[in-house]
Amino acid sequence: MTVTDHPTAESHSHTHGPGCGHEAVVHEDHVDYLHDGHLHREHDGHYDECTTCSCDNCTDSCAVCTCTDCTCPTCNHNVCSCDNCGERHECANCVCDDCTCATCKHAA
What we know:
The protein has no helices and four strands. The chain is an all-beta fold. A hairpin with a 2-residue loop joins strand 2 (30-35) and strand 3 (38-43). This is Metallothionein.
């Protein structure tokens, strides 16, 4: 069994979701919410901070990282290549239900 570190964000007085007033960013298998300059997601009744890019020239959140030479395994800047997507999304943000792209994080 692998133990994953979940850095917990500060407590919140509201539940994040549609219409909560914070920008939502799809990141792999979850949604992060931009809140006071950082991103976090709901997890087991609390909020966790989004992972931070691990490459040497970036300190941004993986959900919004835009470095052009990114080597971080949790950032994915490839663009979805399947024919089913009406719009082109970064693979980390693709929400296509029947995605056939081999580099999308949610692809089967």
